[in-house]
Amino acid sequence: MDNLERNKIHNVTPVNFAVAEETGSQTLYRYKEGNLGRHSLLPSDEREKQVVETITLDRFVENRDIDPAKVRFIKMDIEGYEYFAVRGAVNLLKHVPLILTEYSPEMLKERGFNPTEFLHFMQHHNYQPHQLIQGSMTPIESDKNLDQGVTDIFWVKNGGCER
């Protein structure tokens, strides 16, 4: 809130929820004080823990009476938890033409998850992965091209969206 006031931002409403695949509560694994943007819902034994309220993107949109067909873009950088967050957005995935997520295969593997499940989930919902290369959206042709390091993926909806 202080940051919004300092920067004279008046068109943002902060909400105190973590985005997840289920509405309820979960453990947030807090990163050290030096980097407050690295907290994650992915399990970690090395971090301080705090229970937080969670909400799905579908529930968030529903609670605020937002027409899912009017959501044109979603950007997520939630420290490896993007796959789980989109699993709570199945209704939105019918409508949103473009989603930008961070993709962290090593972070998922370290915590016992198969990162290709994220790719297959998005492809099942008719999204094709793209990367921004020299200012152009370039399709990613193979899952193997996504097996190295953290990368940003633009998920482009194939065949249009439901209205």
Task: Characterise the protein shown here.
The structure is a single chain. The protein is α/β, with parallel strands linked by helices. The chain has a single domain (2-157), classed as Rossmann fold (3-Layer(aba) Sandwich). Helices cover 20% and strands 28% of the residues. It contains 5 helices and 8 strands. It has helices at 2-6, 57-63, 82-87, 105-110, 116-124, and strands at residues 18-19, 24-30, 48-55, 73-76, 98-103, 127-133, 136-139, 151-157. The protein has a 5-stranded mixed β-sheet with strand order 4-5-8-6-7. A 3-stranded mixed β-sheet has the order 1-3-2. It is globular, with a radius of gyration of 16 Å.
- Total beta-strand segments: 8
**CATH-derived architecture:** 3-Layer(aba) Sandwich
Helix share, percent: 10-25%
* Global shape: globular
Descriptive key words:
20% helix, 5-stranded mixed beta sheet, Rossmann fold, 5 helices, 28% strand
Brief rundown of the structure:
Helices cover 20% and strands 28% of the residues. It has 163 residues and is α/β, with parallel strands linked by helices.
